[in-house]
Fold each of these.
Amino acid sequence: MKLGTTAVVLGGSAAGVCSAGALARHFERVLVLERDDLPAEAEHRRGVPQSKHPHFLLNSGRRAINELFPGFEDELIARGGLHLMPSMDAGYLQGEGWSARKSSSMTMIYSSRILIERVLRDHVRRHENVTVREGVTVRGLATRGGGTPNGEVTGVRFATAAGEDHVEADIVVDALGRGSAVGEWLVAAGWPAAPVQTLDAKVTYTSRWYDLPSASERPESWWWKHLVIMPTEGKGEHPPEHEYLVNFFPIEGNRAIACMGSWGLAMPRTTEEFVASARRVRTPVFAAAMDRSTPTSEVHLTRATGNKWRRYDRWQHPPRGLVFVGDSICAFNPFYAQGLSSASSSALLLRDQLAIATEQGSQLDAGFYARLLTAQRTRLKVPWGLAMARDRGYECAVGTEQLPEWRRRIVAALSDPAFRFIVGAAREDDVVDQHFARVFNLDEPIGDMLKSPRVLAGLLRYQVRSALGRHRVPFGFDPQAEPPATDYSMPGGGASPVTASAR
Ligand SMILES: Cc1cc2nc3c(=O)[nH]c(=O)nc-3n(C[C@H](O)[C@H](O)[C@H](O)COP(=O)(O)OP(=O)(O)OC[C@H]3O[C@@H](n4cnc5c(N)ncnc54)[C@H](O)[C@@H]3O)c2cc1C
């Protein structure tokens, strides 16, 4: 049984395509309206400028997409995505120095954002009842009874090269991204403005693409696939580049994206500035890798990175016939890599709620849309809480979620040491490691992790061992040297105890 005739998805990027996959089984036809012409291959396009920057696909997102489009992961890998274990495959430089390599429970698939989208598009096109219309600019919504208990969205107005047009819809999904004007169109149609929570931590990304040398051309010390340099949070004299978060992020086709990002600092814009800044980060390994690789792009800089949650769930009478997925409802500081996962997880939630409605033979009435918004709120709270926990500590952060200065200072003083403490404990304790990987991948709220007795025991053990200077896994290797290649994994999940002086 179908729940309706026509579903219309606004926007054909990650959230739009995932939503189309969620709707396909439940409506006779699904129409995706996208302003850009979509490339057949993995290519950049105007509507998704952030594709020039690294995109980590967290495991919760990878799983959600794979549920919506079975075979997605395999296809991403078949097209060149790299299935890696970051703790073994990444050179990771944090406060004290390089971390030791060690196997862990977390693996990830690395690829470019444009490849992720290309594979998503390939999948959605396999649904015979899904049509993706390109070169279509959505201009507005057709509505009835705006703001009343019976208010509903009944269609979409759009423009093509041939002129203005419209389509009637049983359900509309707003997947227009961060800049979506749907909220404004609804206000014009009689709904109250939804409250918006914001916190812009003034994060700027600057990236450049490189072809890597072949494996045989690399020195032996270049064992790593991914390089991560965490910002120095400590006081003292250092170049601003020490406060950058740096990635040399591997993607398909033996390429990497060199990316530097910061909270609130001026970032390099030209290729000369980019190369000069790279030489001033905390380790020479980043610039050396760039020197051995061939640049293939300009420098791309992005500033549109603030956290923004449009609280449609707080409406007393949400419109029937309208759903929000992806950045259009909740966009995050990209440092936390939550956008794709939140978008796909919302699309999966939509699919599951539609399946329940089908099973129960129920209507998509006002209750359905209100329940969906409530369930979505529960999911969004997890990534939002993680983003706030860190961004609220930054002096440069502005928005409705900004804390009074004294509270901000407390958050700033606690958040980095707490993060480092948990990272340290995860290095030494498998249970903490597994839970922390789940938190990082949005599979578990951090509050649940900190309620687990086994995690608390692991944290306590780590605290005691730290106090005694007896660590099971060494850390803090010299940032001026190459990241150490030694594998410190041990059967049973640990390594030989080392004293502080041995690290
Ligand atoms: C610098 C940066 C780095 C990031 N890194 C990560 C990361 O590591 N991991 C992660 O998960 N997320 C990351 N993100 C977030 C991620 O890019 C977004 O969460 C994701 O793109 C959201 O997808 P979306 O489909 O909701 O919106 P978008 O990808 O923004 O797509 C919106 C779509 O709507 C179309 N459109 C817009 N207006 C109209 C209109 N009027 N008519 C028709 N079509 C229209 C656009 O062309 C586009 O196709 C990053 C973001 C930035 C800015």
Amino acid sequence: MSEPVLEADYVIVGAGAVGMAFADTLLSSSEASMIVIDRRARPGGHWNDAYPFIRLHAPSAGYGVNSLALDSGRIDRSGWNEGFHELASGPEICAYFDRVMHERLLASGRVAYLPSSELGADGVVRCRLGGARKRVRALKKTVDCTFADTRLPATDPPRFALGAGVRCVTPGELPAMSEPCDGVVIIGAGKTAMDTALWLLEQGVDAEAITWIRPRDAWLLNRANVQPGFEFFARTIGGFAAEMEAARDASSIDDLFARLEAGALLQRIDTAIAPTMYRCAIVSDAELAQLRRITRVVRLGHVKVIEPGRIVLEQGTVATSERHLHVHCSADGIPSRLPQPMFQGERIVPQYVRRCSPTFSAALVAHLEATMTDDAEKNAMCTPVPPPCVPRDWLRMQVDEARNNAMWSKSAELRAWLAGARLNLFSPLIARAVQEPDPVNTAILDRYRTAVKPGLARLSSLLAGAE
Ligand SMILES: Cc1cc2nc3c(=O)[nH]c(=O)nc-3n(C[C@H](O)[C@H](O)[C@H](O)COP(=O)(O)OP(=O)(O)OC[C@H]3O[C@@H](n4cnc5c(N)ncnc54)[C@H](O)[C@@H]3O)c2cc1C
């Protein structure tokens, strides 16, 4: 059967944050035409299926597409993010990407959008509503913006079994729950579990009524250290300096994490437990204090089955009941995947080029595509900085990111783009501190400059297992 064929210079698969950020920068940095395909009905990717109380955990100022701010510059004046830059909610993020699609991408006349459309392995695009089929042809390249393979409780059922009568819901179902329960059991150790715990506490659930099944504990970033805005210079750029000083002076990886914790650069919920996980989750001091209120923590490995009267885990059992509410927060989020070269001839696979910065990374990869021709040269600018999983990845990401920064600094064109890039959050702070020197900020910059080279060298040797 012959299907109608749509053509454009670039076919972008995925209208999540990465596909949108890539398309936006390609639009700015080139004359190219594009087709954007997504199986979801709206742009924004996984945010469309997120629980209603989700928020970004890093400031909105560093998220979204390069050409349009997601934030309004607001500092929160209440709540557990008080004093810090705003964090967009899931609905705000979806509305933002909808606006970017309609007011920017489609309005350009150079972008076609196929929502509710799935690209199959056979190259055919099928409309999920009605089954219409078409083919898309990339005159230049196909851009695979599905690499993150995001997994959410709403779309990925639990991997543990559920006995008859057991009440188990996703975080998204919680706000509509009205039946009383004897207690809530949170299953999971990541950001979704933390968000759920905070939301329950905010709703007035007693901390003693919450059981938290946490197979692993995580190192958490401190939100005070990732604030944009010059007024936060000392904390943010001072934090970078302190990270490099900790690295430079560390006698071992354990000693490094002890130093990072002593400097309030990394933190953990329970200071008696050695974290075995690191996934770039960010919390404020106020959130950390709330999370510490939950003391019924079960560390017996992963759940295997929840039966009406007990939960069977890898290393033991705990009691539960049919009157307890179990919350599945155990989807993988962003699964670990082996990195790939980003430029692969007729295919581009955007991945992170900076620590946990999905949209900055996609924008930079798009800009390189628009301004450079040789794949080997572009790949040399784009060592993948994969999302972290274990504490060691904190070291690995610093080293990989530094390699990219060094490559970028060699290109005058890219330096100019970075200087004006909205998503390049912290460089303008440094530029301003240089232009408007004052003794405090200059001292911080000096500390950073002194520590960065030996710090990175030390991280490399720790990673190589030399110590
Ligand atoms: C719970 C959670 C919270 C997060 N919070 C933050 C945060 O605060 N800050 C931050 O920087 N990052 C955060 N992240 C990281 C997050 O993954 C990225 O921010 C980003 O949203 C991922 O975007 P993406 O486009 O790579 O993936 P997705 O959002 O998964 O988008 C990929 C899109 O591709 C589509 N697709 C896949 N295959 C096909 C196909 N064959 N045909 C058509 N369409 C297809 C999917 O429908 C999907 O819409 C969070 C991640 C999770 C899971």
